[in-house]
Write a structure and sequence with these properties.
Structural class: alpha+beta
Family: Belongs to the glycosyl hydrolase 2 family.
Strand order of the largest sheet: 3-2-4-10-7-8
Helix content: 10-25%
Catalytic activity: Hydrolysis of terminal, non-reducing beta-D-mannose residues in beta-D-mannosides
Organism: Cryobacterium arcticum
CATH topology of one domain: TIM Barrel
Distance between the termini: 65 Å
Number of helices: 16
Enzyme class: hydrolase
EC number: 3.2.1.25
Strand content: 25-35%
Length: 844
């Protein structure tokens, strides 16, 4: 394993949001972009257009009306030439020297293979979009007008060339993304558009300073008894060798450390008495403390001037990953402040193929949707990016636990330079940058690479080449131990720990008895009731596909006729044999509709039911199983995928299914042995007790049998109640169901698949009225109604509804609260393509 760094400069980054900065920071704007070598269409050749920074080639060309929207119809394929083209970004700026000792040019993010010229002189070349770069340009600037040029080489051609140079390594999809340090899914994924874009995806700034400035500020906050301990690790850049002093302060406690002449690093230790602990959502409050760091010239006697400062927020908590062997194998439990947490998680991908379009407001919307669905952990998948400060700040504030993968996914990676040096450099920079965030509890070495090495015939194809093991078992754990020892580390997902928690082991990496696992055989080959055949310790990925919402589908695809196999639909279905798997996964449960509107509802519903089945089963196994992370929360463009929120930010029925299945208190009926049982899950902080009532009903609503039992669950407890045969065994399977109820929390069990049941459409009574924020829609049913849903986006694309997928007995009613700013005919909510249920899909 090669432990080196590479690149044109030593990169220095701030790990903190800067509230007060003595150095002068100037954002460089007024950029333009021009196509250079490549298969450039005639209408783009020799044309220079304004460029937005942060931005990308695609969005600049779109703003200039030179290309169609890549998200629409089949435009993705029409725009493949962009990734095969070199691009020139340039700007000019006036510089007036003001006597600063040092002037630095900082690039927050360059995507990806770039050459940088200032006033006609090459100052650097870069090959990694996951790093920032700082160049000393003090001697390169001139009074008056200066020109800055960044040329980006074709990422597709560069990846191909790098693959040849490093030697082929196995990877999924069609580009060798594993040879280049560019966001893997920029080259397309089984849910992602292939843009292979280029651009300055983060700001470009000129920073002028004198004497010294803060480089990396890396606080490590831990807990000892009732005290909070903060070790503030500070690196500084110097223009002189004069003595300096660093002061750190938090909650009224401060300390100062001298930096002797020439010293560039120091650690300031603070002890904050009687701190309030940071807890994940559902376990307590999430207090954050302001930490201030200031850099002074002179010594600790306070006689010097402040030359730089920064502020951030930290939280005090402890984290352990419990993999202590037990009689059933090896658990994987995230323990926060000594308390085991059942993870109710979702996987996160980049929220837009063009990263600069993801604003803090958009992060907030997505994380609010996660909270709505009772999610308590977001896993940032390794084929995307190290997420931004905005993302992590919001998770800190809201108590959302986070798990960040290192950016190696579904591929083998060379362990030789130049790739090795880039991977090490990006890992060090980003671990240091994210270390302060209390929400970050897991750093994970890779996504599916250890599993791929064992399972996907990589060993034959590698023929002895390195594949990444050195990163996962040596380099990354060493970096985490050095820079973020307060954050848990696991070498991969899935991963089976060895004896005594060893990172490197001969155990099969996707073993249900040990550690974390991914379950994909059901979507790919089997059917979702088979989730119940697994008894995992922790499931980090599992999922089922469904289309985007109807509004998103019809806004992005304009096929006439629109069918599951029409041209635009196939462009927006990236999974191998995706439509075949959708069909095969539906027919055991429901007939395949011929009408596109019914097809859309059936596939959306089936996705929701598949994930409900899985999550309720996994939760019923707790504490044997201590977490599930659904694939996936969000999408990066409008596409048929595993997401719960589609590419235009609209919630799919799946989000409501997750909300129900992840509720603090869950009542679920599960097969146990040759019979049925009610699993009661109390993931709240309070005990739960009462009268459990289980009734077997006829489709008419008549109660045919009943079991009543007093139950009591402790906080964070699970109880399983076996049902007597008189209740659990139907006399007419097609026309009966079970309803279990504890304190108003209900669970249902149907004895047959919907397609074989006696469900009938019925005639629901719908009463809708305008409210201050939208509409109140009361629905009363006259027949057993399964999975009642109001697809409000068909009435107003921006509307939201508070619930979905409600099962009612004849004569029962429910009220949907709709948020909408649009004036619509209330009768629209009663339309049969808006008010949906499973009943509509069952053929007589």
């Amino acid at each position: 394993m090669v432990h080196t760094t590479s690149g044109p400069t030593v990169t220095e980054t701030r790990s903190l949001e800067t509230a007060l900065l003595t150095p002068s920071v100037r954002v460089l704007a007024d950029w333009s972009v021009t196509a250079l070598a490549g298969p450039v269409p005639a209408n783009v050749q020799r044309i220079t257009v304004p460029a937005t920074v942060p931005g990308s080639v695609h969005t600049d060309l779109l703003s200039a009306e030179l290309i169609p929207d890549p998200y629409l119809d089949g435009n993705e394929n029409l725009l493949s030439w962009i990734g095969l083209t070199d691009w020139r970004y340039s700007t000019t700026f006036v510089w007036n020297p003001a006597g600063a000792d040092r002037v630095e040019l900082n690039f927050g993010g360059l995507d990806t293979v770039a050459e940088i010229d200032l006033n006609g002189v090459r100052i650097g070349a870069t090959r990694n979009m996951h790093r920032s770069y700082t160049f000393d340009v003090t001697a390169r600037l001139k009074a008056g007008l200066n020109e800055l040029v960044v040329v980006f080489r074709s990422p597709v051609r560069e990846a191909d060339a790098a693959s040849l140079s490093l030697g082929y390594r196995p990877h999924v999809n069609h580009h060798p993304f594993n040879a280049l340090r560019k966001m893997a899914c920029s080259f397309g994924w089984d849910w992602g558009i292939d843009t292979a874009t280029s651009g300055l995806w983060k700001p470009v700034t000129l920073v002028s300073w004198s004497t010294a400035r803060l480089g990396t500020v890396r606080p490590v906050a831990t807990v000892s008894g009732t005290d909070g301990l903060v070790a503030v690790h500070v690196d500084v850049a110097r223009a002189t060798d004069a003595p300096l002093a660093v002061t750190a302060s938090c909650a009224g406690v401060s300390a100062t450390v001298d930096l002797p002449a020439g010293a560039t690093s120091a650690t300031v230790h603070l002890t904050v008495p009687d701190v309030d602990l940071w807890w994940p959502i559902g376990y307590g409050e999430h207090p954050l403390y302001d930490l201030g760091v200031s850099l002074h010239d002179g010594s600790a006697d306070g006689s010097g001037d402040e030359v730089d400062s920064s502020t951030t927020r930290i939280g005090f908590r402890t984290v352990e990953l419990d993999t202590t062997p037990d009689a059933a194998g090896t658990p994987f439990t995230i323990v926060v402040n000594g308390t085991p947490v059942f993870v109710r998680g979702a996987n996160w991908i980049p929220d837009d193929a063009f990263l600069h379009r993801v604003t803090k407001e958009r992060y907030l919307q997505r994380l609010e949707q996660a909270e709505f669905a009772n999610i308590n952990l977001i896993r940032v998948w390794g084929g995307g990016i190290f997420e931004t400060e905005d993302f992590y700040d919001l998770c800190d504030e809201r108590g959302l636990l986070t798990w960040q993968d290192f950016l190696l996914a579904c591929a083998a990676y060379a362990e030789e330079d130049p790739l090795a040096g880039e991977i090490v450099a990006e890992a060090r920079e980003n671990v240091a940058r994210l270390a302060a965030h209390p929400s970050l509890v897991v750093l994970n070495g890779n996504n599916e690479n250890i599993w791929g090495h064992e399972e996907w015939n990589w060993k034959l194809r590698l023929d002895g080449k390195t594949w990444g093991a050195g990163y996962y078992y040596e380099t990354f754990p060493a970096i985490v131990a050095e820079l973020a020892p307060h954050i848990g580390y696991t070498p991969g997902s899935p991963f089976s720990p060895g004896e005594n928690g060893a990172l490197q082991t001969d155990r099969y990496p996707n073993d249900s008895e040990h550690g974390t696992m991914h379950i994909w055989d059901l979507w790919n080959q089997r059917d979702y009731p088979a989730y119940r055949e697994y008894e995992p310790r922790f499931v980090a990925e599992f999922g089922w596909q469904g289309p985007p919402t109807w509004s998103t589908l019809t806004e992005s695809i304009h096929d006439a006729p629109l069918t599951p196999e029409s041209p635009g639909m196939l462009v927006h279905q990236k999974a191998a044999e995706g439509n075949v798997k959708l069909t095969d996964g539906l027919i055991p449960h429901l007939p395949l509709p011929d009408d596109i509107d019914d097809w859309h509802w059936a596939m959306s519903l089936n996705q929701a039911n598949a994930i409900s089945t899985a999550v309720e089963h996994f939760r019923s196994l707790s504490p044997h199983c201590m977490g599930s992370i659904v694939w996936q929360l969000n999408d990066c463009w409008p596409v048929t995928s595993w997401a719960a929120v589609d590419g235009y930010g609209r919630p799919k029925p799946l989000l409501y299914a997750i909300k129900h299945a992840y509720a603090d208190r869950l009542v679920t009926v599960q097969p146990r042995g040759n019979g049925l049982a009610v699993a009661l899950v109390n993931d709240s902080a309070e005990p739960w007790a009462g009268e459990l009532t289980v009734r077997r009903h006829a489709a008419t609503g008549e109660a045919l049998a009943e079991h009543v039992e007093q139950v009591s669950l402790p906080a964070r407890g699970t109880v399983t109640v076996l049902l007597p045969a008189a209740v659990a065994e139907p006399t007419d399977a097609a026309g009966e169901l079970l309803r279990a109820d504890l304190g108003g929390v209900q669970g249902h069990w149907f004895f047959t698949e919907a397609r074989d049941s006696e469900l009938t459409p019925g005639t629901p009574l719908v009463e809708a009225e305008r409210t201050a924020s939208g509409y109140s829609v009361r629905v009363r049913v006259d027949t057993l109604t399964r999975d009642l849903a109001l697809l409000v986006d068909k009435v107003d694309p921006d509307a939201l509804v508070d619930d979905m997928l409600v099962t009612l007995l004849p004569g029962e009613s429910t009220v949907f609260t709709v948020t909408s700013a649009r004036d619509v005919d209330p009768a629209a909510f009663a339309a049969p393509n808006v008010l949906r249920s499973t009943n509509q899909l069952v053929r007589a």
